[in-house]
Design a protein that fits this description.
Number of helices of chain A: 10
Largest sheet of chain B: none
CATH architecture of the largest domain in chain A: 3-Layer(aba) Sandwich
Low-confidence stretches of chain A: 229-260
Shape of chain B: globular
Low-confidence stretches of chain B: none
Distance between the termini of chain A: 28 Å
Helix content of chain A: 25-40%
Oligomer: heterodimer
Number of domains of chain A: 2
Shape of chain A: globular
Radius of gyration of chain B: 18 Å
CATH superfamily of chain B: ABC transporter involved in vitamin B12 uptake, BtuC
Number of helices of chain B: 13
Number of strands of chain A: 9
Distance between the termini of chain B: 35 Å
Number of domains of chain B: 1
Radius of gyration of chain A: 19 Å
Largest interface: A-B, 23 and 30 residues
Structural class of chain B: mainly alpha
CATH class of the largest domain in chain A: Alpha Beta
CATH topology of the largest domain in chain A: Rossmann fold
Largest sheet of chain A: 6 strands, mixed
Order of helices and strands of chain B: HHHHHHHHHHHHH
Strand content of chain A: 15-25%
């Protein structure tokens, strides 16, 4: 991570709607080149947090500081786009900005889908659609990428490829990345900092720290910790964590490769 | 030439159709069919109020459609209301109220059929001037807000996150629709306005590959339906509003055929 000033920092954010407290004193920062992942159960306030950071959700308390001139590239989970509206990929990318065809094509190339530029967005697969939305966000030259459930509706191989792509974009562009996911295992190996959200911040830290945290284990069950251990083992060939994390569930990880 | 009632009807219907195509595309994209229906039903209340207050009927109708449209918008924002139920109440209460007011006004004989199904053959030169100028204003306004409005229609949250004032654009669209519906009442009547909005746009879908193309093609198909319907009405001596809608429905069915045979 870097010592540069944070791109965005939230201080004690609270959102209360009616009598329900959706977010309770949430603080987080994202710095340039950093990948921060927010995980948590459904209804834990992940979407509310993203909306608040994007300025779409009024705050009940707290404040959000954005670096001056910050450009956010937002990749939503899905679009409400009606199939009755004919929209090509290039038209979708230039919906709110003007960009020449070469620029659009370059953005699509960066996410590996340049060949789809003239396709209708309604014929894309889940993985292709993700990559198109990611290219759309990159077109704005964002300092910060905000991704809501970036692998929803993508098969397992596609998931790994997408996380690798997000990591590569971070490496090449040096932008900050804030991801939201209910997805437990794959995402955590690719991230610098994890925030576990269930209305309030349950726990926060490096992936392996969070995975051992009692709150995390309570929310997601011991198998979730198990699964992370498997991934770290699998990807990084780092040994020794699995034994620490899994406690009495320290039986063969290979039997439960995708638990959680 | 404007002495000819048929030419006048043709001009009025084409003017309304030009608005119906692009606006109808948004009605289809945003799933607002209920909205057109409710606003159109309320238009009859405008007739009643116009008569009672002694103001111009088109103005009375426009006032009511705009008010009802804004009311609907406000209701839509409230969470926890069963919108379709409220719409049903609003649409039919205002329709019933309009009819009752008209019936209660002494010495007034109004041909309700003309308002329910349109009476384009009776438009005056003044009507044509009003339709033409409103069509110009509506289409120019739509063109001015086109790009952000399309972006907000693709996905409101995403557009808002990227700096589009989606609330403002929604209100603008709804106001343009209310004006169009007030004007269209003379041509196809309150019961068929939604058809003129939706059917040409639906027919244009398969023939288009961009939102802009669809809006233009929908406008052209609506005009074609207006012209075809009026000729149908002339030769078969059928009511003009329903004939226009039938022509639009015919075009829609043709649009479902394989593309090549449509072109051929």
């Amino acid at each position: 991570m870097t010592n540069a000033a944070p791109l965005i920092s939230a201080e004690e954010l609270s959102v209360t709607i009616g009598k329900r407290t959706l977010l309770d004193a949430i603080s987080l920062t994202v710095s340039p080149g950093e990948i921060v992942t927010v995980i948590g159960p459904n209804g834990g306030g992940k979407t509310t947090l993203v909306r608040a950071l994007l300025g779409l959700q009024a705050l009940s308390a707290g404040r959000i500081k954005r670096r001056k001139g910050l450009t956010i590239g937002y990749v939503p989970q899905s679009l409400t786009l009606n199939p009755m509206m004919p929209v090509s990929v290039s038209r979708l990318l230039t919906a709110t900005i003007s960009a020449g065809r070469e620029v659009v094509s370059a953005a699509l190339k960066e996410t590996g889908v340049a060949h789809l530029i003239d396709e209708s967005v309604h014929t894309l697969s889940g993985g292709e659609f993700r990559r198109v939305l990611l290219a759309r966000a990159l077109l704005r030259r964002p300092d910060l990428l905000v991704l809501d459930e970036p692998v929803a509706g993508v098969d397992h191989a596609g998931e790994l490829a997408l996380y690798a792509l997000i990591q590569r974009i971070r490496d090449e562009r040096g932008c900050g990345v804030l991801m939201v996911s209910h997805d437990l295992h794959v995402v955590m190996a690719a991230t610098d900092n994890v925030i576990c959200l269930n209305g309030h911040v349950c726990c926060t830290g490096q992936p392996h720290e969070v995975s051992q945290h009692s709150e995390y284990v309570r929310l997601f069950g011991p198998k979730a910790a198990d699964a992370l251990a498997f991934y770290e083992h699998h990807h990084d060939h780092e040994h020794g964590i699995s034994g620490d994390v899994a406690h009495e569930h320290d039986h063969s990880h290979k039997d439960h490769p995708h638990a959680g | 030439m404007l002495d000819d009632f048929f030419v006048r009807a043709m001009l009025a219907a084409i003017g309304v159709a030009a608005m119906a195509g692009p606006l109808g595309s948004f009605v289809v994209w945003r799933r607002m069919a209920y909205f057109g229906d409710t606003t159109a039903h309320a238009a009859l209340l405008g007739i009643g109020l116009g008569v009672v207050l002694g103001i111009d009927l088109t103005l009375g109708v426009a006032l009511v459609t705009v008010s009802v449209a804004l009311l609907l918008l406000a209701m839509e924002r409230r969470i926890g209301l069963a919108l379709d139920t409220l719409l049903g109440i609003l649409a039919h209460t205002s329709l019933a109220l309009g009819v009752t007011i008209i019936a209660l006004t002494p010495g007034l004989r109004v041909d309700l059929t003309a308002y329910l199904f349109g009476d384009v053959l009776a438009v005056s030169v003044t009507d044509i001037a009003v339709i033409a100028s409103l069509a110009a204003v509506v289409l120019a306004s739509l063109a001015a807000i086109w790009k952000p409005l399309v972006a907000a229609t693709m996905d409101e949250e995403l557009a808002a996150a990227e700096g589009v004032n989606t609330d403002l654009h929604r209100i603008a669209l709804v106001l343009l629709l209310a004006v169009m519906i007030a004007v269209a009442m003379k041509v196809v009547g309150v019961l068929l306005v939604t058809a003129l909005l939706i059917i040409p746009a639906a027919a244009a879908r398969r023939l288009s590959s961009s939102p802009e193309q669809m809006a233009v093609i929908a406008g052209l198909l609506a005009m074609l339906a207006a012209i075809g319907g009026l000729f149908l009405s002339l030769y078969l001596d059928t009511p003009s509003g329903p004939s226009i809608v039938l022509a639009a429905a015919f075009i829609f069915v043709v649009s479902l055929l394989p593309l090549r045979s449509v072109r051929g």
